[in-house]
Design brief:
Order of helices and strands: EEEHEHEHEHHHEHEH
Number of helices: 8
Helix content: 25-40%
Radius of gyration: 17 Å
Largest sheet: 8 strands, mixed
Strand content: 15-25%
Number of strands: 8
Shape: globular
Strand order of the largest sheet: 1-2-4-3-5-6-7-8
Low-confidence stretches: none
Amino acid sequence: MALTAGSNTIDGPHGQLHIHVWPAADPANDRPIVAVHGVDGSHESWSGVAEAVAGTRTLIAFDLRGRGASSHEGPFGVVAHANDLAAVIDAVAAAEVTLLGHSFGGHVVARLAADRPAGVAGVVLVDGGPPRVVPEDMAPEALVAGALSNIVPNLGAKRYPITAEAVEYDFASMVVEHAAARALFAVTVPVYLLRAELGVAPGLPPVVPDAVVAELEAAGVVMSDQVVPGVTHFSILADPALTAALA
């Protein structure tokens, strides 16, 4: 099925998915982008990017299950959401798409690109997708618990409905599950990685450090790597470097 401009609903493998489409002005020469938001985001996370590309390319973004107007039923986790992403791509009815993922969404698009590269022209990762670094003196579960203690209490302030169960399961899946965390090592299509110089807030270490990028490059992942100066894990979404990477 072809999606129409604005809101759409499709039947995914695990329930209904809400999709928003910002169309290209010239469908005949379009190169669609399918975007996946972060762990506590929604399709609205991409509204600024949609404004920046302004009709030059179709931008398609969906609410991960557990958020917004998509089904709030499980299963959750990187692999389950990658299966939903596959359904969205099939609904686009386009020859090739560029996958765009921020933070947790980077792990979802990496998993899909590793499992089903056909129809994927390339992947743009925005401060997410490479394995999360766990300090040597910390268990992965402790890292997850610490991060969630800052995320979950703020979910009620979001403009859209979001379930804590989905956020908790998804965050854990990208840190603890080996196959999900390292999916990027199996990606064979070109990868463009944008990294924030700063962490989730000024003064915190970057989410994707140099050592992880060096490991990916040593493993033979075809990747362009760019550090965006002066931005955090969240403000990078509004930086012109992202629009330039998509171009």
